[in-house]
Amino acid sequence: MTATSTQALLEIIRWSAPPAPVNWRAVQKAVGVTYPAEFREVADALPPGSFQTFLSLLHPTSHKPRVYAEELLGYAGMLSSSADSSFPYPIYPAAGGLLPWAVVGFDYIICWLTEGDDPDAWPVVICSAHLSEWQVHRMSTAEFLRAVLTVPSPIELLDYVAEAQQPPSYIGVDGAQSDQAGPDERYWVREAEGRTLIGPADAVEQLRELVTPAPPAVPDWYDVWMKVQGKIGWPPPADYQHLVEELGAITVGGVTVAVPGGPVDLVGTYEKLRRRVNRELAAAGGPPGPVWPAKFGVLRWADIAGGGHVCWLAVSPDPDTWPVIVLDAELRRHVLHMMTASRFLLELATNPDAIVLEPPG
What we know:
Layout: H1 2-12, H2 24-31, H3 37-45, E1 49-51, E2 55-57, H4 65-82, E3 98-104, E4 108-113, E5 124-128, E6 134-137, H5 141-148, H6 159-163, E7 170-172, H7 204-208, H8 221-232, H9 238-247, E8 251-252, E9 255-257, H10 266-282, E10 298-304, E11 309-313, E12 324-327, E13 334-337, H11 341-350
Antiparallel strand pairs: 1-2, 1-7, 2-3, 3-4, 4-5, 5-6, 8-9, 9-10, 10-11, 11-12, 12-13
């Protein structure tokens, strides 16, 4: 059972690098416990590193055994400093206490409850960093990791870990990483290479004469755009910001613009598409090219009546260089328009025959 669970974990992260066995005798002496067999297998197979970039193993070879034991004491001390009379478990190095073995960013510390004489029977306990919440899962180490990396995840508290990327990844601090799989990173951008956007870059004033503006009443747009940037990692293109501030959630030729907090919410539409794609990728499906937050991904900014998506194509770190890409509802077919969002809408309003909203099969 142990070997099967560990192998299944390595398969879903597509790990093929050779193992580097840990000196478990020295590690276990320094920590003062015998580790579960499955964790020993996982740590032998993987170098120090992280799943999905933020679920990090507290790996025994990340430090010399004595320093590693001190690191575990440090994480245990964080929990001890927050524990009160309502917390039901002792904490390492107390006998039968919670022993940290992984962390999720700065939010959660994952532990074993070292109760009983059989380490392979220790349950996994997820603790928030300040012990405001905790959950017990009676799973083995590799079973737990597989559950956290699966879409949909049965570990709802950590479901965002799996949803960050599918297929799930592991990246070692030494640069080793999962074998490449999933969408072709450059699938969408190949068509845009060597091409430039058609002007004008900001067509909001021309559009104003062709639509009925309904700008939202927002007291501080700077704050709105900072929050959007915090969610997606980039500020939206400048012409789109101008469009939303001046005209709002307009509809042009069946295309409805998504705006922050609007009927079609900008960040919400990103998240909806991302979650859907990750579910499809987890089931060995999904689009041929990447979707935000993957590199060179597409970011949805408008709906098409009857289905379909109007997106930006993130061809570079500069959002003002992003062209518009129209995809069908299934994300299989696309048409690239070398225009900004406002220029695209202007063309749709004045020359609709030049804009393809139903990519050919």
